[in-house]
Amino acid sequence: MIRAVTVIVAFAILGAVPVENVRVLAVETRGGKSHWNFMSGLLRSLTDAGHEVVAFTPFPDGPRANYTEIDTSGQVKVHVGVTAERVLKDFALMSTNVAIIRHNCDGILRHRRFEGILRDHDAGTAKFDVVIADPSAADCVSHVAHTLNLPVVYSISSSMLTFAERRFTGHASNPACISNLIAHHSVPRTFVQRLTNTFTTVYSTAAYEYENWLQRITDPKPYDSSPSVPPSVIFQNSYYGTEAPRPVPTNLIDVGGIHLKPAGKIPKDILEFIEESSHGVIYFTFGSVFKISSLPHHIIKAFKEALANVPQRVLWKYEDEMEDLPENVMIKKWFPQRDILLHPKIKLFISHGGISGVYEALDAGVPVLGFPLFYDQLRNIDNLVSAEMAISMDLFSVSKKSLLNAFLELITDEKYTKNAKIASIRFKDRPMSPQQSVIYWTEYVIRHNGAPHLRSLIYNSTWYQYFLLDVVFVLLIPFFLISYLIYKIISL
Predict the structure, then answer these.
(1) Residues sharing a CB contact under 8 Å with residue 89, sequence separation 6 or more, in sequence order
(2) Greatest CA separation found in the chain?
(3) Which of the four pLDDT bands, split at 50, 70 and 90, describes residue 435?
(4) Span of the secretion signal (predicted)?
């Protein structure tokens, strides 16, 4: 009720008329928990505002008011508790990602409940106003939006997917100043970084387009023939207060931290473990996808020995039994991460750099020791390093000594905690909350019949028009003509 009143007041200030009873069809095409955490945050904002959501998801949240979910865990390939070897092998390949998403799309579109929605549309009884979907590495969303004649809103659980940015927005980031999503740096500062960033951007974009083209040729699907439906609005899990500055199109909306919920109760045994610590607590997790216990023995041993030598207590998310468990360490297969990080006794967060955990650390103002592994994690951690609230290390070259030095530096040097608190203040300083932004812009799309005026006019241009190659070619014609005439005159 309080949130609904807040939203109404916000709309009154903005001078916009709220749209009532919006019906949203949500489709999660990825099997990663972090993807769903972000989309779930978007959808919860809408249901809390009184809108109705029907969601196809492999991670059911359970029933609530205005919310209907269809479990697709049997159709979507879910990535939870994956071994280190498989993570580094599978997630690095564009071909694997495209194939997985197309497999997931097949399962969702063939789901009897989804087929029922399409039949209801054909019969004129389907009543939806907008599609919210994760576009990811392959496009089956356009088929849904085109078939149902609905505007589409993208849910991107990271910063902009630079390899697909041109297709999503019509624009491409300049690699001279904007780091690729999978770059090892937050900003390309040196010549070598600009060179590698350019190569990464060109290669990843070409690989994305090629793999999608190849899949359409070798394994054609019915949705491949649907015309592309550009997104009316894109919600991305980013925030300009904690990212390097960059130009963005009008319809790209930052709602980083949308998944954050108010602090809840910490289970009694964990709470006692935290509060009985005289020197504070270190929280250690590599998220839901990566299985820490699958790491090589010597790496786990280095962590155990280093953590055993710090005065802090340690909460370590670990999936199996652990031999020689240090006295100051508690292990569990799951911890209430958000609630733990908000506890004032947490001194350090050891993380792989997943964006959900990064925003939880930012919101709580906790320093981070990062061990980025793949995808956007290296860039995420380097953003925190640039804010001087984190240290980044290579997971596969750690030793007891290097770990212990990093622990002690982050905990004893006050600059890291101070800078984490400053970054937290910036993260929270916004003109409206992420939830209010989601409600406003989703309703904006409905009020303005898909809001096509928000999309860049360059969206439908060809690649050579976008990069002005046709203009350059025309401008070079007189140059070559004059050069040729001069050559002929000289040669007379």
Answers:
(1) none
(2) 96
(3) very high
(4) 1-21
> What is the tens place of the pLDDT at every residue in 299-337?
999 999 999 999 999 999 988 888 888 889 999 888 999
Identity of residue 418: K
Backbone angles phi, psi at 249, to 5 degrees: -70, 165
Going by C-alpha positions, the residue among 153, 116, 115, 149 that lies closest to residue 134 is: 153
Q: Which residues share a beta bridge with 368? A: 349, 390
pLDDT score for 351:
92
* 294 to 192, 335, 377: CA distances (angstroms): 34, 19, 19
Q: How many residues does the chain have?
A: 492
Residue with tokens 């935290």: 274
Tally the C-alpha atoms within 13 A of residue 386's C-alpha that lie toward its C-beta: 17
Which pLDDT score is estimated for 89?
A: 59
Amino acid at 59: F
Tokens, residue 320: 């199996």
Tokens of 304: 């155990």
Cα 491 to Cα 74, 209, 352, 487: the distances in Å are 76, 48, 67, 6
SS (H, E, C) the chain: CHHHHHHHHHHHHHCCCCCCCCEEEEECCCCEHHHHHHHHHHHHHHHHCCCEEEEEECCCCCCECCEEEEECCCCCCCECCECHHHHHHHCCCHHHHHHHHHHHHHHHHCCHHHHHHHHHHHCCCCCCCEEEECCCCCCCHHHHHHHHCCCEEEEECCCCCCCCHHHHHCCCCCCCCCCCCCCCCCCCCCHHHHHHHHHHHHHHHHHHHHHHHHHHHHCCCHHHHCCCCCCCEEEECCCCCCCCCCCCCCCEEECCCCCCCCCCCCCHHHHHHHHCCCCCEEEECCCCCECHHHCCHHHHHHHHHHHCCCCCEEEEECCCCCCCCCCCEEEECCCCHHHHHCCCCEEEEEECCCHHHHHHHHHHCCCEEECCCCCCHHHHHHHHHHCCCEEECCHHHCCHHHHHHHHHHHHHCHHHHHHHHHHHHHHHCCCCCHHHHHHHHHHHHHHCCCCHHHCCHHHHCCHHHHCCHHHHHHHHHHHHHHHHHHHHHHHC
How would you classify the pairing of strands 313-317 and 152-156? unpaired
> What's the pLDDT tens digit per position in 16-35?
667 778 899 999 988 888 88
* pLDDT for 95: 52
End-to-end CA distance of the chain: 89
Cα 282 to Cα 340: distance, rounded to the nearest angstrom: 10
Question: CA-to-CA distance for 297 and 239, rounded, in angstroms?
Answer: 38
What is the reported pTM? Answer: 0.85
**For the segment 357-395, what is each residue's pLDDT rounded down to a tens digit?**
999 999 999 999 999 988 888 889 999 999 999 999 998
Q: What's the confidence (pLDDT) of residue 85?
A: 60
